[in-house]
Each structure stands twice: as C-alpha cells, then as structure tokens.
Write a structure and sequence with these properties.
The protein is mainly β and 321 residues long. The chain has one helix and 24 strands. The chain has one helix spanning 296-307, and strands at 2-3, 12-13, 15-16, 32-33, 49-50, 58-59, 66-69, 74-77, 81-85, 94-99, 102-114, 118-121, 125-133, 138-146, 173-181, 187-197, 203-214, 224-225, 229-232, 237-243, 248-253, 259-271, 276-277, 285-292. Strands 7, 8, 9, 10, 11, 12, 17, 21 and 22 form a nine-stranded antiparallel sheet that branches. Strands 13, 14, 15, 16, 18, 19, 20, 23 and 24 form a nine-stranded antiparallel sheet that branches. Strands 1-5 form a two-stranded antiparallel ribbon. The protein starts with a strand and ends in a 14-residue tail after the last helix.
Length: 321
C-alpha cells in the first residue's frame, strides 16, 4: 500500500477471514479485506492510496496489537485496553476487560428466544477463535455455542427484580461475532456474523445483544447506569456502547441491583433446525468504549470523527508478471 502523493509505504494487512462481505451481501476477494492506516485527515480533505497485491498475509510490519494464546483462552493488549478469555466454562468472549490495569467488566453474546416464554440465553462456551493480526488491527471471529440445558438463563424480572420461573427450555444454537481491536484505542467493535439453530425444534429469534456487564474497579454495586454506559464515581471511569442503527442501547438496573446492559438488535424470525441467520448483507456493529470521566466526551468525539470518513474505490488494474 502506497500513499499516492508521497510514494511512501503505508502500514496495511490482509485479513483472510470467512464471511467478509460488502453491504450488498456479495463476497469481497473470497473473504479477504485489506485495512490500512490513513493517518490524520483535516476536515474536507482527502488522500489517495495505491494498493498492490502481495503474496504475504501482512504488508511488511509486525502486529501492533499483542495477542497471546493461554492454556485457558487468550490475552490481548492494544496499549490502552487489556482483554482476556480465561474461563473455558463461560460463553463470554471476554471474561475481563481492563483500562489502565483497572477492571471494567466482561462482554458476552446474548440471544433473545421466544419459545412460549421470553428467554435471554448466552452461550455455554467458546467453540473456536479465528485470528487475523497485523500492523493495522487485530480481528477475532469468535464462535460460541449453546448445546444443552445448563448454563446461565435470564427471564423477565418483576418490580422487585426477581426473575420469573423457567417455564420453557433454552434452545441450542451456534453464533459467531466479529471483534476488531485497533492499537492504542480505548474501544473495540463487535458485529454479529451469524446465528445457527442447532436444536431439533424451530424457535423464534426475537433479537440478539452485545451484552456488556460491568464490574468497574471490582465494585459492580457502585456502577451506575447512565443510558448507554456504566459510570463508577469512585473510580472516575465510564464503560459503555456506541451503537449503529437499528441497534438500540438502554443500560439499567432492576430493583434487586441486577444489571441489564441492553444493546439490542431486534430480528423477529423463526429459525428451523439448521437455519442460519446472517441478516440482510452486513449486520450493524457497535463500539465498546472505556475512558476516564474527564476524557469521556473527547473519546466519543474521536470515535464519531472516525465514523465520518468517506471513501471510494477506483478501478482495479490487472497486470501480468
């Protein structure tokens, strides 16, 4: 990848991952995307870059985000956030997320099943993690499964915060989420790729969640719900979600102190055994963000500026060797 104005190399990488799609659902380079570093752009200005295909997976630089496998999962450090998977019996993608060494909480896929009763069901375990890492970003495609009656189950709560008794069984499923982590940023993105009905019965997928439970500085009871984020006054930290429509976000606590970080994408489709929901083209993503209270607004503005960059691709020129 070259900057057309200067002729200098620009850090980039190839992400060879399944289900990499354009917004119209068509595949791109058989599952390959090529992110690269644009650098700073002043308002209403632009840059031109020239891309050249190489045989190597990454384009001439070491990974900027540290990813290390462990005997129970993995550990990630992007210079701002540390994220770890340490409990093989948990369906959480990240069992612990920290900023500057201070614990924030965990992140979990969650499905809303309508099966004669409203059930909110997380996976039981992580089945597979596919990794692409380079000088631009770390990409994880995480497959999680629910294969039995065990594991956590959530039903509706009453005015006292008590959950309703289970009157139906959770249905089995396999789901895949894509996580993208950039170096030095106090955020990462999450996007649903698929939900498969692995049960023997059909069931209704009412929706799915990007579920962000807090435990800021190890004191969940002190974490206050502020609409789209958790706030801990003693630690001076915020931890929340910036959505992309039609995902809606509402963080709240029930009367018993139970957390409900509802970042919801409504779906409303019935999945027969073997059916796979992939949405219409590319599903919307969310950004999970953390920052000191004093830096919260500026961090949200940085993220908003990032999302306001427009791009277009020129014609591809093919040349023989």
């Amino acid at each position: 990848m070259l900057d057309a104005a200067t002729g200098k190399d620009v850090p980039g990488q190839y992400d060879i991952l399944p289900q990499q799609t354009l917004g119209n659902g068509e595949g791109i380079l058989a599952g390959c995307s090529m992110p690269f570093c644009v650098g700073n752009l002043a308002p209403h200005t632009g840059k031109t870059f020239l891309a050249y295909w190489k045989d190597s997976h990454t384009l001439g630089a070491v990974p900027a985000v540290t990813y290390r496998e462990t005997d129970k999962g993995f550990e990630i450090d992007n210079g701002a956030l540390t994220l770890s998977k340490s409990n093989p019996d948990s369906g959480a993608i990240f069992d612990r997320i920290s900023l500057g060494g201070v614990e924030l909480g965990r992140f979990t896929p969650l499905l809303w099943q309508e099966v004669g009763q409203s059930l909110w069901i997380p996976p039981e375990r992580i089945e597979k993690v596919e990794v692409s890492n380079g000088p631009v970003r770390l990409v994880l495609d995480v497959t999680a499964v629910r294969s039995g009656a065990g594991g956590e189950k959530i039903t509706r709560v009453d005015e006292t915060g008590k959950q309703a008794a289970m009157a139906a069984r959770p249905m089995c499923f396999r789901t895949k989420y894509r996580i993208i982590i950039e170096p030095g940023k106090p955020w990462f993105s999450s996007q649903l790729l698929s939900i498969e009905n692995t049960d023997t019965q059909p069931w209704q997928l009412a929706g799915y969640y990007h579920y962000l439970q807090s435990n800021i500085a190890g004191q969940m009871a002190d974490d206050e719900a502020r609409g789209t984020y958790w706030h801990n006054a003693a630690a001076g930290l915020n931890f929340g979600i910036v959505p992309t429509p039609p995902i809606t976000v509402s963080f709240w606590k029930d009367a018993a102190g139970g957390e409900h970080p509802d970042a919801l994408r409504k779906v409303g489709v019935t999945l027969k055994p073997g059916d796979i929901y992939k949405g219409t083209g590319s599903e919307p993503q969310v950004f999970i963000v953390a920052a000191k209270d004093t830096a919260w607004q500026s961090t949200l503005q940085q993220l908003a500026d990032k999302e306001q960059v427009e791009w277009k691709m020129g014609e591809v020129e093919m040349k023989g060797k």
